[in-house]
Input
Amino acid sequence: MPETAPLLESWLEDARRVDALKPRYLKELGVLTASALAGNWSDPASLSLSGRRYVTAAEAKQDAALESFLQATSGLEARIAFVTDRLAAAHAVEARALSGPEALARWIQAIEAVAKDDRFGGYRLTPQLGLLPLRPDPSSGFWEFAHLPSGEPPRFAAGAPYELLQESCVGSR
Output
């Protein structure tokens, strides 16, 4: 997500700019349609794709361009809302999994513990987007991780089992 965030933010900026044009183009199409109703329809090239006749072929082309734009951008508001929500959720997961103070402290603890564990030959974990270190499993010593996109990390006290709730996320070792 961190590497794609600038692309999504740029897309949102462009999409919002395009969406802002729709009221103006709807108004232009309304004015154009009104002129079609009152026009002289002698030129066969003045028939637009929408079936309206205009005084000139240029007006028919303008009608087609406006209709095409409006059709291509229908549903854009919903796509903007979807991408905005996904981007906000991704930023939240990033903060909870990587950059927030609690996440940083947990990752430092897990990285140091795994690096010192002889079973891993000095391997150094790297923080993974979407994962949050929980603690070493009491019986195996392997670190357990919460998968944040699937829910909330389970609550636990030192040495106690996890308190799993309906909103608890998936965990892994």
Observations:
- The mean pLDDT is 85.
- Residues 5-90 form one domain.
- The chain has four helices and three strands.
